[in-house]
Amino acid sequence: QTSRYPHLPISRMALKQGYLEVCLKRASDLIDVEKIGKQDPYCVLTCGTYTHRSKTHTDGGADPTWNEVFAFRNVVSNLALKLEFYDENLIFRDVRIGTCKVPLSTVAEAGTLDVTVPVIAKDGVEKGTVTLKMTFTDKTDPGMSSAAAKSQWILPNYGGKDCKKDYDIGKILGKGSFGTTYLAVKKGTDKTCAIKVVSKRKLTTPEEVEDMRGEVQILHHLSGHPNVVNVLDVYEDKYNVCIAMDLCTGGELFDAIVARGSYSEKDAAAIIRVIVSVVAHCHQMGVIHRDLKPENFLISSKGPDAQLKATDFGLSTFFKEERTYTDIVGSPYYVAPEVLRRAYGKEADI
């Protein structure tokens, strides 16, 4: 009998259902159209109904190292782990380098297996190799012993809390790529707030999970400034992360600008003064916002004394003065040129 995967032995064991943990260690000799060794490779891992995406290895060249751990629950040993490698391209479409598959049958039989498999392009040409460590546990949940299982909660300090026990959820106020914001009322009171509900199912990559953690941490870190939206409560249940925040009923600054059409120099200066004070507060607290735009400033009410409130810190990060940042984040039409050049610091907010 000939194996479809000649780099691995053939297994004839009975089917097993269990828990698969994959450590994506490194790749070697990845070949892409990029000839100067500055390709930005990442890997998409699929097994059954689960899909994960590794971090992008910026300027990782042909020999990137990840050492990232991914968990696949309730998989069957007759499946295969599929790995697809891409070179990230922020201007054109990401370039597909190649793919490979590892059958779970051999891993399930061995328990733990270190494997190195070839990455094959669409035309059948080998484009390098990838090294993995795979562990198959013959049960649906191995407990909390592995590195992947430790991440049961995205926010361990808030894990297992249900916001519906404290709040009555009302109408939808807005929708974004990852979350939906609802009007809510604190139970036993008449206090209203906004609750941002982020589906954990949509947080499919390590970067997205870290962004979620970072957003909550930074919102707490910046609290107290009159022009930063205040966090009231944070919750995480089996399916969602929920953030209760100040309710801003005046809408987005962007919509206010469009509705007004034009501003006098005096009125425009007053708005810019508030925005600059928020930027100064962020930088004094060691945070770069990285997505400043009128859509991310809310108006607290519809009254004449309404305040601007900065929101959406999902792309923000803590910074160090001596460090140059290279990851490209932000929004089209607003992002700073130095961000696109992959060399920036806190000044990109200005």
What's the layout of helices and strands?
Layout: E1 17-28, E2 41-47, E3 50-53, E4 65-76, E5 80-87, E6 95-103, H1 104-110, E7 112-120, E8 126-137, E9 167-175, E10 179-186, E11 192-199, H2 206-221, E12 231-236, E13 240-245, H3 253-260, H4 265-284, E14 287-288, E15 297-299, E16 308-310, E17 317-318, H5 337-340
Structure in a nutshell:
The chain has 350 residues and is of the alpha+beta class. 16% of the residues lie in helices and 34% in strands.
Structure description:
The protein has 350 residues and is of the alpha+beta class. It folds into three domains: 131 residues, Immunoglobulin-like, CATH 2.60.40.150; 93 residues, Phosphorylase Kinase, domain 1 (2-Layer Sandwich), CATH 3.30.200.20; 97 residues, Orthogonal Bundle (Transferase(Phosphotransferase), domain 1), CATH 1.10.510. The strands form five sheets. It has a five-stranded antiparallel beta sheet with strand order 9-10-11-13-12, covered by helices on one side. Strands 4-1-8-7 form a four-stranded antiparallel beta sheet. The protein has a four-stranded antiparallel beta sheet with strand order 3-2-5-6. β15 and β16 form a beta hairpin. The longest helix is centred in the C-terminal third of the chain and has 20 residues. The protein starts with 16 loop residues before the first strand and ends in a 10-residue tail after the last helix. The N terminus is likely disordered. It comes from Chlamydomonas euryale. This is Non-specific serine/threonine protein kinase.
